[in-house]
């Protein structure tokens, strides 16, 4: 009895396992999951039934069968293909085709294997497109090749429910002898271009140099002309102002600030550089200051007008009080100034008016030194 009960239990366990296995098989055949990016094409007894979108779906057991189709864009890269150009040059070409299933019913039922069909169509299109182009065009017009291939294949693939999004030529490899010839041609063109650019550069450099010299000469001439005009006007203005001072126009700066500031102002008016040195510890009488001032003004007028000097110097020194005020004006001009000339004679009269003494040294060839000693007592 014990053996019989054990056998019965084992039999029941086997039956349960078998039933469980049948349920699992049944559920597996009935329940199908379609992943995102795919669709499920259902055939019932071999005939197209419907298309399921992503998700969980229940099929009719034994009657329904589902084929999953990826509807995302996918690339197909073929092997290198031998093509011949219009000018009879053999090339090795490879391309990548980016396509996408748009009608799964056509893709499954209008062509046996749409992937293989696209590959074979691409080979034919490559031969046809490159056969219409020369070698130079094949190497330089990739966008044109891509467009022509897409136009060539688009109509056929649409019948299969597949859309060509784009075609990219990956590699174009000419034969070794063609590559060597192209390299030599490129090198020759570069040498030719370099020679042309060098000659054009030398020509342009010569033209630019000539134009630059011409413009420089014109500008230099205009500058010299303008400088001469400005120098003449400045000299004329300075002489006019110096004459006005000599004629007795007593500047306020002499009264307010003394000889140092007044003589510096005279030097600034002179058209040539003038160094001024004033060392007067005690300010002299206004009459002596005026004579010293007008002496320097007259002397600088003569320097600017007659001496052709490039530099002048004014030195005023006071020796004690009441002592002597020494005034000296010198220049590096051509010399030849005469003490009896109207200007210097008038200057001597002014100096003698304050009991002073004027001396003039001006040998031919220079320098000229006009000095005065003015008593301050």
Can you offer a commentary on this structure?
- The chain has 377 residues and is an alpha+beta fold.
- The mean pLDDT is 81.
- It folds into three domains: 2-70, no CATH class; 74-179, 2-Layer Sandwich (Tetrahydropterin Synthase, Chain A); 237-375, Heat Shock Protein 90, CATH 3.30.565.10.
- α6 crosses α9, α8 (259-269) packs parallel to α9 (286-307) and α9 (286-307) runs antiparallel to α10 (342-352).
- Strands 10-11-12-14-13 form a five-stranded mixed beta sheet.
- A hairpin with a 4-residue loop joins β11 and β12 (324-331).
- The chain is elongated, with a radius of gyration of 57 Å.
- The chain has ten helices and 14 strands.
- The chain has helices at residues 2-30, 104-109, 114-131, 135-140, 142-159, 176-246, 252-257, 259-269, 286-307, 342-352; strands at 31-34, 38-44, 47-52, 55-58, 64-70, 74-77, 81-84, 90-101, 162-173, 274-279, 312-319, 324-331, 357-361, 368-375.
Shape descriptor? elongated
What is the straight-line distance between the termini?
169 Å
Mean pLDDT comes to: 81
- State the low-pLDDT regions, or none: none
> Strand order, biggest sheet?
10-11-12-14-13
Number of helical regions:
10
Structural class: alpha+beta
- The name of the CATH architecture of the largest domain is 2-Layer Sandwich
Per DSSP E runs of 2 or more residues, the count of β-strands stands at 14
Oligomeric state: single chain
How many separate domains?
A: 3
Helix content: 40-55%
Share in β-strands: 25-35%
Classify the fold: give the CATH topology of the largest domain: Heat Shock Protein 90
CATH superfamily of the largest domain: Histidine kinase-like ATPase, C-terminal domain
Please summarize the sheet with the most strands.
5 strands, mixed
Compressed to H and E, one letter per element, the order equals: HEEEEEEEEHHHHEHHHEHEEHEE
- CATH C-level class of the largest domain: Alpha Beta
How large is the radius of gyration?
Answer: 57 Å
